[in-house]
Design brief:
The protein has one domain: Alpha/beta knot, CATH 3.40.1280.30. By secondary structure, it is of the alpha/beta class. The protein is globular, with a radius of gyration of 15 Å. A three-stranded parallel β-sheet has the order 4-3-5. Strands 1-2 form a two-stranded antiparallel sheet. Strands 6-7 form a two-stranded antiparallel ribbon. A hairpin with a 3-residue loop joins β1 and β2. The longest helix has 14 residues. About 30% of the residues lie in helices and about 20% in strands. It catalyses: guanosine(9) in tRNA + S-adenosyl-L-methionine = N(1)-methylguanosine(9) in tRNA + S-adenosyl-L-homocysteine + H(+). Keywords: Methyltransferase, S-adenosyl-L-methionine, Transferase. One of its GO terms (cellular component) is nucleoplasm.
Length: about 140
């Protein structure tokens, strides 16, 4: 089942694959392993929020899936707008849960501000903060 989210806040589910619903050149698969940075949201594109956890055993699984399907990929601009924070676990991850990615994208769509969007969706437990939050 695919959950489709349109930025005018309509959601729908379908058993069909996104590959059958949209042209390949309109699909952007969001994966933290992409070399391409998402700079802006294009309302003519369809953004796939990867539903797999890449941090553990299956590293780069979402990137590989997108490449196997000949899809464009992008990652959120966490490295570009945030800094690593010192923490006791020395833990830093750009892999977010689907609801966090959703929060980032919807906040960016409303504000057109990556710092505001990343602040809304990236918890401090990921080891990244906005530069203004560093003491």
């Amino acid at each position: 089942t695919v959950l489709l989210f349109f930025f005018f806040f309509q959601m729908d589910t379908t058993p069909e694959s996104y590959l059958d619903l949209f042209p390949l050149d309109a699909i952007v698969y969001l994966t933290p392993d992409s070399e391409n940075v998402l700079e802006d949201i294009d309302p003519k594109k369809v953004y796939i929020l990867g539903g797999l956890v890449d941090e553990s055993i299956h590293k780069k699984l979402t990137l590989q899936r997108a490449q196997d399907q000949s899809l464009q990929t992008a990652r959120l601009p966490i490295r570009e707008y945030m800094v690593k924070t010192t923490n006791t676990k020395n833990y830093h991850s750009e892999t977010l849960a689907i609801n966090q990615v959703f929060d980032v994208l919807s906040t960016y769509y409303k504000t057109r501000s990556w710092p505001a969007a990343l602040k809304a969706g990236v918890s401090s437990g990921k080891g990244y903060v906005l530069p203004s939050a560093v003491n």
